[in-house]
Amino acid sequence: MWLKLFLLLLYFMVLFVLARFFEAIVWYETGVFATQLVDPVTLSFKKLKTILEFRGLGYSGLPEKKDVRELVEKSGELMEGELYSAIKEEEASESASSTNFSGEMHFYELVEDTKDGIWLVQVIAKDRCPLMGNVYWEKMVKKVSRFGIRTGTFNCSSDPRYCLRRGWVRSTLIMSVPQTNTSKGKVMLKEYSGQRIEAEHIFKWITAHAASRIKTIHFPEDLKDNWSQDDQYHLKMYLFASLDQPPAFFSALSVKFTGRVEFIFVNVQNWDNKSYMKEIGMHSIPSYILKTPEGVYRYGHRMGEFISLHALDTFLRSVQPEVNDLFVLSLVLVNLMAWMDLFITQGATVKRFVALISTLGTYNSLIIMSWLPVLGFLQLPYLDSFYEYSLKLLRYSNTTTLASWVRADWTFYSSHPALFLSTYLGHGLLIDYFEKKRRRNNSDEINANNLEWLSSLWDWYTSYLFHPIASFQHFPNESDWDVDQDLFIERLAFPDLWLHPLIPTDYIKNLPTWRFKCSITHSEDVPESLQENDSDLEAESNTSHEVDTFREEPRSVHNLHNEESESDKPFCNCLNRHNCSNTSCERHTRLYGTYCTKEDMDPDWSVWPVNMLHCTECVVCLENFEKECLLMGLPCGHVFHQQCIVVWLAGGRHCCPVCRWSSYKKKHNSAQQPLLNENT
């Protein structure tokens, strides 16, 4: 998880650097920056009208370019970035969607029960023509959707009783707007009563009703009282301008941020005394001022702070976020981090997507469960001070220059989703390349095809049927279904067996493994202690019958005493196995098996790992160690053929065949190696 978080932060840094690179390219080609101010005198009449359209100011009664230019100047300063965005959005000319209501409940849920938005609904009376034709209605929908106003059509033929109850006997236009300035207040429906059915006049009617919700100040004394007043609103957004009414985007934001930010329009058209404006730091008109408990912030002088709906909406969401905004942001970040698993996971394509789906489900479940206690804690009254301090810290950080760059990049990449997705894909391919180089030693995992991985997934699934507890942690290498199909019937017959844990077999890879080697010795090097023990051979031969009986018993040895009961059949096990005639050699062979060969070969104990007991026979198969055969030792110190002990352990018997010590647990007080007593 931390690796994915680091890679996601690295990706954000790449986006930040890439945005600065694009700015440098634009400056090199055009010689201007996005924050550079534009003189409206240099713009054409068409571009001026485009700016007014996106700011929500009517220009139907202004036939001359001079009047349109003055209206642009009165509404706020114009930047190159805002001009570029307005022109590009106008050229795109994408048609906005409109809702068709099916009946009373559908209309109530979307229109009357929505407390934070504006709706424009065209009501078509039964057996009547609509008030606006399809062409004019599409034009109207496109015009109002720029300011977050949603549109819909209600045909009374689908629910005539509801239309009669409402009094909609003729086709009309209905506007829904919140009635109060409190969050989740009542909604009032207003019917259009104008005579002219034109988009421009209907838009003026909409903006006039939306602007009536904004508090308007006409005199300096009222401004002084309001500025020093401390009410329920912690944030106040002031617009100082010489306009008849605020722009449509400003009115639409007042509806969107109902209960969070108070919007105030200060009309300074007829002000002679502007001394108080200078006292509060207002030196230019128009100005957009955000007043917070920490101070005053002038909007529109940094990167990305355009006079538009989307730019001001992003700014206000950053300085005064809702819990819903933080939740959506955390959800986006978590999903971006989870998609990194598609490139980090190596192997078959199916394996990548299975891992991705698993990660997406896990991360989204965790983020939802993490937010539930947070929402509960926010309801506690004694956490209000903590909440206020958190907002204060957030406002300090979001009014910096770096925060304005981040908001500008967010707006840029959200308006260019193809660029965002392509850079994310490129970043993921780089991660995949370096991850392959890091795991180049594990070629089996990287080169596995889809069929092989699906086969291993089936093995895991069948193992889950038998051992569900342990299968959640590791994929077994072999399926229990292939070993014994009757075990499945046993699991179904005895459900309590499902609770028996299965130890993962990955620890077998870490057990010490080496080859059995021999070294040449001479007969005179045989210890004298061996000759002293020759007198015991006769007594020991009497037990040969018991040892032969032991060889016919099952191969699973249960204690250390069975390991000492060796076969009395003489043998040699270094390089070549053959019978020996020397009885002294027979005794030594049964203990060590090293001194009785044609060339007097002796096991090379120097290659054996530390704390491994010296022996020459595998207790599992009861065969002697041959030269260059693979051996494997357990933590208890007992040694076996590698193949024999792996089959033993993989079968579910995770203990030593001799001493029953756990094969996956270290033994701190390990047994001492047998030493050969030499009489010197």
Structural write-up:
- With 680 residues, the chain is of the alpha/beta class.
- It has 29 helices and 17 strands.
- The strands form 5 sheets. It has a 5-stranded mixed β-sheet, sandwiched between helices. It has a 5-stranded mixed β-sheet with strand order 6-8-7-9-10. Strands 11-16-17 form a 3-stranded antiparallel β-sheet.
- A hairpin with an 8-residue loop joins strand 4 (172-178) and strand 5 (187-191).
- Helix 1 crosses helix 13 (323-339) and helix 2 (45-55) packs parallel to helix 3.
- The radius of gyration is 42 Å and the shape is elongated.
- Residues 469-485, 494-500, 522-600 and 670-680 have low confidence and may be disordered.
Topology:
Elements: H1 2-30, H2 45-55, H3 65-75, H4 80-92, E1 99-101, H5 104-112, E2 119-124, H6 134-145, E3 150-155, H7 160-166, E4 172-178, E5 187-191, H8 199-211, E6 215-217, H9 220-228, E7 236-241, H10 248-256, E8 262-267, H11 275-279, E9 287-292, E10 295-299, H12 309-319, H13 323-339, H14 341-344, H15 349-378, H16 384-398, H17 401-415, H18 417-438, H19 443-446, H20 450-466, H21 468-471, H22 480-483, H23 486-493, E11 513-515, E12 518-520, H24 528-532, H25 537-541, H26 544-551, H27 560-564, H28 583-591, E13 601-603, E14 617-618, E15 623-624, E16 630-633, E17 639-641, H29 642-650
Parallel strand pairs: 1-3, 2-3, 6-8, 7-8
Antiparallel strand pairs: 2-4, 4-5, 7-9, 9-10, 11-16, 12-13, 14-15, 16-17
Helix pairs in contact: 1-13, 2-3, 2-4, 12-17, 13-15
